[in-house]
Design goal:
The protein has 392 residues and is α/β, with parallel strands linked by helices. It contains 11 helices and 13 strands. It has 2 domains: 65 residues, no CATH class; 249 residues, 3-Layer(aba) Sandwich (Rossmann fold). Helix content is 25%, strand content 17%. The strands form 2 sheets. An 11-stranded mixed β-sheet has the order 2-3-4-8-7-6-9-10-11-13-12, sandwiched between helices. α3 links the parallel β7 and β8. α2 crosses α8 and α4 packs across α5. The protein is globular, with a radius of gyration of 25 Å. It starts with a strand and ends in a 39-residue tail after the last helix.
Length: 392
């Protein structure tokens, strides 16, 4: 990345990140320091912060070459680097910590640094022995990125080989009728498109039970402005992307606390088999981190996960092995197994007598039960019609 001043050596203006103090930009990077009154975080200076929305002051003009935007960098992926979208959320923040426990380096995608303060603090409080990559805080990088702005995403992914998407519209903002469309579908699709362009090696998407079902309890959740419909459309975008994928559909995560795992063991099921159930945010985060570590076990799978008291404590690897993969079967030479099957010879007399019959269209199963919503438009605020007459 290059930083050049074209007119004057004016310093780049410091962007306030609420509670943080920072040094001027250097090659597009800033070093975050926690508030000075916090003396309990001796490693706080080591946290690196990347801001792809830099602004300049005065007449200074800067040229910043973003990371991983050229085709020459596309193949240089770091197998130990994971990008987590929604890293400040309940599932996302726990996923960041679980990845760090496994020795990964993590790029935490956040919308603002203010919301990342608790994540940084929780990572600094982790009691782990140093690994080859350093302490957990050494392996964490904050990346400010708005997933609703497509041009910000691919540079933010950098050299990440795996992307984990934990975003979702906030249920607290029930009045925002556009939330599920903007976040659960459009922002997620933007991330999928960027990951495809960046040639990311694996994409893990967290959605919800019921995304591919019609009826109870899916109908209840869809009262939240069609959230499951938009989540399913995000799944379809991932399935059509050509990326190696894993789709995780957890049960309800609102009530269970982190101690839920002490009495409930997770169980995994194939797609479209579960109708309900509970699981904790921590259990889902542990599953996501395990999938990132074991891509061969999780690739091209759709997994539904809940936790039950009656479920035996089973290693995650064994649970994942039972879930079928949707990858096409190929042999070691990369050719379909039926490619080497000999075909019976056809005599000239028989071929001349019969003309080939036209192919008949075969009925295919719709990708989604929401076929009636194929032309569904994003929600907008109601506006008065042309025939509207104001009453006096």
């Amino acid at each position: 990345m290059e930083l050049r001043s074209l007119q004057s050596p004016c310093a780049v203006s410091c962007i306030s990140h609420g509670g943080f103090t920072e040094k001027p930009f250097l090659c597009g990077l800033t070093n975050i320091k926690l508030p000075l009154e916090n003396r309990n975080c001796p490693n706080s200076k080591k946290l690196q912060f990347v801001d792809h929305k830099a602004r300049v002051s005065g007449t200074a003009k800067l040229k910043v070459e973003a990371r991983n935007t050229t085709s020459s960098d596309a193949g240089g992926k770091d197998e130990n680097l994971v990008f987590v979208a929604g890293a400040t959320g309940k599932v996302g923040s726990r996923t960041v910590r679980e990845l760090l426990k496994l020795g990964f380096k993590v790029q935490a995608g956040v919308r603002s640094t203010q919301r990342a303060e608790s994540l940084v603090q929780s990572v600094q409080n982790m009691k782990l022995d140093d690994v080859a990559g350093g302490t957990p805080i050494d392996r964490l990088e904050l990346v400010v990125c708005d997933l609703e702005k497509r041009d910000q995403i691919e540079p933010a992914l950098g050299k990440s080989s795996t992307v984990i998407c934990c975003i979702g519209a906030s249920e607290k903002e029930i009045s925002d009728i556009t939330g599920p469309y903007r976040i659960d579908f459009q922002a997620t699709k933007n991330l999928i498109d960027a990951a495809t362009s960046a040639k990311v090696k694996h994409f893990i998407l967290v959605t919800s039970l019921g995304t591919n079902k019609i009826g109870f309890p899916a109908a209840i959740l869809n009262l939240f402005w069609g959230v499951l419909i938009w989540k399913r459309k995000a799944e379809e975008a991932l399935l059509a992307s050509g990326l190696s994928y894993t789709i995780v559909r957890p049960g309800g995560m609102e009530r269970p606390t982190d101690s839920f795992k002490e009495t409930h063991n997770i169980t995994l099921s194939e797609e479209d088999t579960l109708f309900g159930g509970l699981v904790s945010n921590l259990q889902v985060a542990e599953l996501l981190a395990f999938m990132a570590k074991n891509r061969s076990l999780s690739s091209f799978k759709i997994v539904e996960v809940i936790a039950e008291t009656s479920a035996p404590l089973t290693p995650m690897g064994e649970l994942l092995q039972k879930i079928p993969s949707h990858r096409a079967e190929v042999n070691a030479s990369g050719v379909s197994d039926n490619a080497n099957t000999p075909t019976p010879p056809v005599s000239e007399s028989s071929s001349s007598k019969k003309e080939p019959e036209p192919l008949k269209p075969t009925a295919t199963r719709p990708l989604s039960p929401y076929t009636a919503y194929d032309d569904l438009k994003p929600p907008t605020s109601p506006s008065p019609s042309a025939n509207f007459v104001k009453l006096q």
